[in-house]
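> example.struct
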């Protein structure tokens, strides 16, 4: 043991990697709907490993990783953040504002009642509201307090301990409230409510003109014998028969000629039609009634898949049903929609918002025209624009240091952490306007957000480990009880506001209050109980707003209590 401790002290970087590995292992364990997740798991792993050795942690390394994480989070949320404030996400956003403001207020009140110091107060807020990034902004605020270095170290350790104690209560409480208590208070059957919402969006309507993204798309050739019912009809008339299934004639062979698909072209006996469509529709409606033939030359149509960022003014605010009927969408198929980093259902009643990422497929010429109508095609890249990344983090951090404002007569600063988050938000938003600005591949963003936060939290745990036992003995059971109050009151406030004031659909409301605590496990629990992915429609607008505000609260609670 002594050799292991000496090794960990001499090579702290290896201790961090061990902590991350163990943290992800702890985070993967599920108990019902509850799991710690990799972030909380990394903190607990750090607190555990730190009991064997006092591993030295460089403050600059912690800050570097945390700023990378915050920039990545902002970059991911940027395309949807301003849209959520402007458009149909207004109700979930207002619910998020109610939950987060109530969360700060109740955290302040509980901290005062329990006589907590700034460190424990920040841990209470970040753990009770399940917002790990608030640990970093709180630590930065503590470092700016006019205190001795030893006292700053003690308060910083209290943040991690308070988070560790309150996170279990906060996360479990959020899952319980969103998936069990919330529906009981609303008096709704989640499965029935999800089914009603699904029908209103056209999810259960087979003749909807939009196919779910999980289906494969086909291009096949069919011959029209003299007995075929379509002979004498135009291509437009034939396609109208199958409008609900998005079957299109892309071109046809007549004798030795291959003709383009002119809607006015009349079908003759012996024509061979190249028909595209979802696999299920092709098999069900064509294969039993038509004669499939092998015609490689006719079917030699270049298809292409692309990711398109929605920015077109003609499609923003329109439903998929309406967009599917546009002439330029003929022959185009939608595989998936991503909003704010979360997949949302593909259904006719879904309304597109600026910043939505569409995964589409179709013939090259059709896809090029459709992409220009939808917004901007996002070409895959493996290169990160480090010039923009580094400069934006620097400028954001600088603004965060310089910007100060007054809250209840107390001067509050944003700090470098919130500044980096806002810089990422702006970069992500500008990227939707100009896809060549600040390009960062999805894999790089994922590494920044996942490894960045897990590494930072692992270091926090290792640094706070020596204070764990004394701190727990000091606060006893009052802190987890305070954490339960801190998580339940904001959720209840958001639920009441959304139900009685906004009259929100219960499925969307429960998704919104889960997003208000950035609690993905809570949203997943609502999805599991309702048997539907639709809660994400309320979660997606609330999440980026809550992510920014709750991170800021970590700094503000420290300054208010101090």
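> example.seq
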């Amino acid at each position: 043991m002594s050799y292991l401790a000496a090794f960990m002290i001499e090579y702290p970087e290896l201790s961090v990697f061990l902590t991350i590995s163990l943290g992800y292992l702890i985070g993967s364990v599920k108990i019902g709907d509850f799991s710690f997740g990799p972030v909380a798991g990394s903190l607990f792993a750090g607190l555990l490993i730190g009991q064997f050795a006092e591993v030295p942690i460089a403050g600059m390394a912690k800050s570097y990783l945390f700023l990378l994480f915050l920039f990545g989070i902002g970059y991911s949320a940027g395309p949807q953040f301003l849209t959520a404030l402007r458009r149909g996400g207004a109700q979930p956003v207002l619910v998020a504002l109610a939950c987060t403001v109530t969360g700060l207020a109740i955290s302040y009140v509980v901290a005062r009642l329990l006589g907590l110091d700034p460190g424990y107060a920040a841990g209470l807020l970040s753990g009770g509201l399940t917002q790990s990034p608030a640990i970093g902004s709180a630590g930065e605020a503590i470092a700016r307090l006019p205190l001795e270095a030893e006292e700053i170290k003690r308060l910083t350790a209290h943040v991690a301990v308070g988070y560790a104690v309150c996170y279990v209560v906060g996360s479990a409480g959020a899952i319980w409230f969103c998936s069990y208590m919330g529906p009981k208070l609303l008096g709704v059957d989640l499965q029935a409510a999800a089914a009603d919402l699904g029908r209103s969006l056209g999810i259960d309507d087979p003749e909807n003109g939009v196919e779910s993204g999980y289906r494969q798309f086909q291009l096949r050739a069919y011959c029209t014998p003299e007995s075929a019912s379509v002979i004498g009809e135009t291509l437009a008339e034939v396609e109208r028969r199958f409008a609900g299934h998005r079957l299109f004639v892309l071109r046809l062979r007549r004798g030795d000629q291959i003709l383009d698909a002119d809607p006015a072209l009349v079908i003759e006996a012996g024509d061979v039609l190249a028909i595209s469509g979802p696999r299920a529709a092709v098999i069900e409606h064509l294969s039993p009634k038509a004669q499939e033939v092998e015609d490689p030359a006719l079917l030699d149509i270049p298809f292409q898949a692309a990711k398109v960022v929605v920015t077109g003014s003609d499609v923003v605010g329109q439903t998929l049903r309406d967009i599917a009927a546009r002439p330029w969408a003929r022959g185009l198929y939608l595989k998936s929609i991503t909003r704010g980093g979360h997949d949302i259902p593909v259904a006719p009643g879904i309304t597109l918002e600026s910043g939505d990422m569409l995964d589409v497929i179709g013939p090259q010429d059709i896809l090029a025209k459709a992409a220009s109508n939808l917004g901007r095609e996002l070409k895959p890249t493996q290169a990160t624009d480090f010039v923009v990344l580094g400069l934006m983090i620097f400028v954001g951090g600088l603004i965060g240091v310089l910007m100060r404002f007054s809250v209840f007569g107390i001067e509050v600063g944003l700090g470098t952490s919130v500044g980096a988050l806002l810089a990422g938000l702006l970069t992500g938003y500008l990227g939707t306007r100009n896809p060549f600005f600040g390009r960062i591949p999805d894999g790089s963003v994922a590494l920044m957000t996942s490894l960045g936060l897990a590494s930072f939290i692992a270091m926090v745990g290792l640094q706070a480990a020596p204070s764990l036992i004394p701190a727990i003995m000091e606060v006893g059971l009052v802190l987890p009880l305070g954490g339960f109050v801190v998580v339940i009151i904001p959720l209840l406030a958001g639920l009441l506001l959304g139900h009685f004031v906004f009259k929100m659909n219960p499925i969307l409301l429960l998704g919104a209050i889960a997003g208000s605590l950035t609690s993905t496990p809570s949203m997943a629990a609502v999805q599991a109980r309702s048997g539907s992915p639709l809660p994400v429609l309320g979660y997606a607008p609330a999440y980026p707003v809550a992510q920014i505000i709750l991170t800021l609260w970590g700094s503000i609670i420290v300054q208010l209590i101090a």
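> remarks
The longest strand covers residues 303-310.
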